[in-house]
Write a structure and sequence with these properties.
Elements (H helix, E strand, L loop, with lengths): L3 H35 L6 H7 L1
């Protein structure tokens, strides 16, 4: 079994490893949303297309 102290350390490590990916995906999501709106679709189509 692991102690609760190592669980916090694991979560911190996971956040440190995945934060750059999140910061990279955010501008891509914004760009995709802008592209969908520029094509004449409603804004709510962008999350539907992304989920599919």
């Amino acid at each position: 079994m692991t102690s609760s102290a190592s669980n916090g350390s694991d979560a911190r490590l996971a956040l440190a490893e995945t934060a750059p990916l999140g910061f990279g995906m955010f501008p891509l999501g914004i760009a995709f949303g802008l592209l969908v709106v520029q094509c004449g679709l409603a804004w709510w189509w962008a999350p539907l297309f992304s989920a599919g």
